[in-house]
Amino acid sequence: MGQDMNIQKDRIQLYQNQVFVTDNVEGIVPEFLTMLRGVIDSPDIPLNVSRSYLQADGAVKKISSYITRKVADKLKSLFNSNREDFEAKWNDI
Q1: 5-31 pLDDT per residue, tens
Q2: Which residues span the domain enclosing 63?
Q3: Integer distance in angstroms from the first to the last C-alpha of the chain?
Q4: How many structural domains compose the chain?
């Protein structure tokens, strides 16, 4: 579990109106998406928050759901547009 936390740290950063909030997104972003890198900037996230608050917050749950859906859509698009290349890279994902 500790290694999983280190893998996630610094890969996805959470901002509120361009102000850094946290890079500890454990429980916010699904575990299977820990290989992603990026920034989430939302006006709906308070500046001072605990991890447990973020995990229970409705806006954060919507963000997590949206990210999951967009990644799935992109993977499906890649699969449909270039199946050979997708299958060659799938094991690396």
Answers
A1: 455 456 888 899 999 988 887 777 788
A2: 2-90
A3: 20
A4: 1
